[in-house]
C-alpha cells in the first residue's frame, strides 16, 4: 500500500514511531497530486518545496525526541477562503487571484501547531457561496466518482482531493453544508462542530467587509476526512479555546458519553422535499446498522428542522442583500445567477420584502428552536437524516435552469437547518447508489461531538469503504 492511501491516524502513528518519515509521506502525496490533480483540479497553489522543507523539519523533531502534535508531519490541505500565511487567498475571485495572506486564521494556526504539513489550497466557488466548486480564476473542480456531478461546495476542492488521496485531511468551513455536503458527494466523513468549538477568528483584513450576523453566528471551521477516526483526530487538533471568536468557548467540554441505550430518531422529510429513493435507502441502511450496534432506533417527525431550514432562507438571504451589490460586481456570472435564484427561492417562502419585523422575529424564533432541540437531544439522543434529499447534483444545476436551481434549496434542508441551530452534525457514507456516493447525516447535542462520532463509527464499521478512489 502506498503512503498516500493511509489515513491521517495511520500516518501520524507511523511518522511518530519512525516506521516512515514525513518527507516520504509528503513525496507520496505530491506524487498522487501530480497524478490526479491535473484532471480533478482540487488543489491550487501547490507548493512542493515548501511542503518538503516543512516535512524535513518534522522529521528532525522526531529524531530529536521532541514533543509531537496530533498531526505531526501529516499532509493537510487548507481552503482557499481561509488565511494561511504566505499562501494564495483568492476566495475564487479574479480581482484577488494573486492575493496572499500575511497571517494564519486561528483554525490554520491550530493545524500548524498540531504539526500539519500544508500541501496546497483547496478550490472553492466565488465567495464560497455555492454547492459547487468552480470559479473564473481557478476553474472547475470535478468529483472523482463522476465528473458530471458536483464534488460539493463550497469545500469541494477539499473533498475531491481527500477522496482521490491527495491529502488525508482537508480543512473546510460550513455555513450551509460546505463541509458536510462535499463530504457526502465524495464518499467521505464531514464533521461540522458545535458553534464556537473550533475558533473562527480570522486574521485582520482591512479590505474585507464586516460580516453580517448570520455569517458570524453560523459559520464554523472543521475538516473533511476519509474516516471517522481521522475526523476525531482533526477535531482534537483544531479545537482550542479562543475568546477572540465572539462565539468561542472558554474551555473545551469533556467528551462525555451518555450511559445506557442511546435513542436514534430517524427523520426522512422535513416538509420541504421528499427524499430520493437512494437517500431513503441510505437512511434505511444506517438505521439498520445503528440498531445492530445497540442503538434504539425509531422513526419520527421533527418539524423544527424544516422550520430552521426556512429560517435559513429568511435570515441568510436578508443578510446577503446588504452584500449583494459587491458580490455582483466582484463575483462571476455563476455567483450572480445563484444569488438571484436564492433570493427568488426565499421570496417564495417569505415574500419579496419580508421587512425588519420578520427578520427580528426570525432571530427570536431561532432561540426557541435551539432550546427545544437541546431539550430533545440533551440526554444523548441522536437524529438521523438524509445528507440531502437528492443524490449529488449534476454540475451547475443551480444556474442552468431557474426552477431546477430553486429546487436545490429545498433538497438541502438537512444542510441548511443545522447551521441555524448551531448543533454538531456529521455526514458519513453508506455505500454507492448508481455509482455515486450515498450518505446520511447524524445530528447530536451541542458539544457532544465525540458521542456523535461514536454513532458515525458504528455506521462506518458496517459500510463499504469508498475512498481513496482508484482514479484515474
Automatic annotation (TrEMBL):
Family annotation (SUPFAM superfamilies): Amidase signature (AS) enzymes
Ranges where the Amidase domain occurs: 24-453
Pfam families in UniProt: Amidase
Signal peptide stretch: none
InterPro entries on file: Amidase_CS, Amidase_dom, AS_sf, FAAH2
PANTHER family, alphabetized: FATTY-ACID AMIDE HYDROLASE, FATTY-ACID AMIDE HYDROLASE 2
Record protein name field: Amidase family protein
Organism: Actinocorallia longicatena
